[in-house]
Amino acid sequence: MPKTSSLRVPSYRRHKPTGQAVVTINGRDLYLGKWNSAASRAEYDRLIAEFLANGRQLGSDADRTLVEVLNAYRKFAENYYRKNGLVTSEYAGIKEALKLVRELYGRKTANEFGPLALKAVRQRMIEKGWSRGTINQSVGRIRRCFRWAVENELVRPDMYHGLMAVSGLRKGRSEAREPDPVQPVDDATVQATLPHLTPTVADMIRFQRITGCRPQDVCNLRPCDIDMSADVWLYPYQQTISTSTCRSSERLCVACRFMRMGSYGTLTIVVIVR
Description:
With 274 residues, this protein is an alpha+beta fold. It folds into three domains: 7-59; 66-164, DNA polymerase, domain 1; 187-273, no CATH class. The chain is built from nine helices and nine strands. It has helices at 38-53, 66-80, 89-105, 115-127, 132-151, 158-164, 187-193, 199-211, 215-220; strands at 13-15, 20-25, 28-34, 82-83, 86-87, 232-237, 253-255, 259-260, 266-273. Strands 6, 7, 8 and 9 form a four-stranded mixed sheet that branches. α3 (89-105) crosses α4, α3 (89-105) crosses α5 (132-151) and α5 packs antiparallel against α6 (158-164). The longest helix has 20 residues, at 132-151.
């Protein structure tokens, strides 16, 4: 009597994009760990034994592995976090965060990953020397993974709420490394670069250099935003004061030096900081 597909044992395969071992049971891809490793072979044997003992059916969703949920979210994120057809840097950040979760808890079921597990992953980030801001972002990415899993009924609804109870790291109240403040480009480099730029871009850099505004503020600047009714032009600049650059919030205005702008020749702009 010929063997039918229903009697075949699901095969141990290699998932080339991730380098992991995978087995497909009842239409679900179950990831086992590094391909051809002893651990992945043991996990495969365990799943097949349970599959056969359960009448060729998988267990309940309570037995869904954490690796299965992480890989399902990774596939979603790869398609979701795209711009102009290319994956964004956010996807790379998601992969790095989920990689640590997989390393520490990949053998656990998804419903076993609670607040203490998330804090353990966060501690691993600290030990790796990640900065406090990067750690808080990565923890947020892990939470979003479980929010998506709840939305798609892959884990219990209370899982996401439990992870939300883990507070973010506060400045000066954790072992996490604080990033070095971003320093401005030195004047000599700016001056050496200006001759190689178009007049418009060169003026944009001069304006940003003098006012200390962000690049997006320069790009969004419109002629109607500047009061040109007098010899001294005024620009009401809604600025967020940054402590990392040591600007004082008491500084009400910045007197700008002469700069060339298009056909207007030399002019003075006073930036009003509110």
